[in-house]
Amino acid sequence: MTRRGWLVLAAALVVLATTAGTSAFSAASLDRSVQIDVADDQSAYLGVSVTGNATNNTTTATVTVTNQLPGDIALTTVTATDEGDSTSLTPGDGSLDGGDTTSATIENVTCGETVVIHASGDAVTVTLEREIQCT
What's the domain range around 94? Predict the structure, then answer.
């Protein structure tokens, strides 16, 4: 075969190689279903209860937190914050151990205001917001 023949053959192979598919997926569609169960505040890993007695659209709110995390996970920081004022719920020994409950009172909270509850410990952080309900 001549040099020109080899060049034509090489060019044909290059064209064939670049136009042929690789048989790889370019798109896929899957149908998956997911079910998520959401626990109420008292049954969650961080059990929370916020109560208050209203007078003239303000209340004294009591925030109660229970550590219901599995195993021996202790919470070393537990706070409740409303309008920038933070109240510590961390017990005097510095740790809220599994199954333990702690409470704190927040004075002069406006009805409908949001309280942010933050708890953290070794390898766990929980932050949630709850609106102060006045009755």
Answer: 46-131
